[in-house]
Amino acid sequence: MLDMTGKVAIVAGAGSVGPAGSKLCGNGKAAAILMAREGARVLCVDAQKSHADDTVASIHAEKGEALAFAADVTHKADCEAMVAEAVGRWGGLDILHNNVGIESRQTLMDTTEQEWDRVMVVDLKSMLLATQAAVPALERRGGGAITCVSSVAALRGAGRTAYAAAKAGVLGFVVSVAIQLAPKAIRVNAIAPGTVWTPMVEDLGPEMRERRRKAIPLGVEGTAWDIGWAAVYLASAEARWITGQTLVVDGGLTLTTR
Question: Where are the alpha helices (DSSP H) in the chain?
Answer without folding.
Answer: 27-37, 49-61, 76-90, 113-120, 126-140, 161-181, 205-215, 224-235
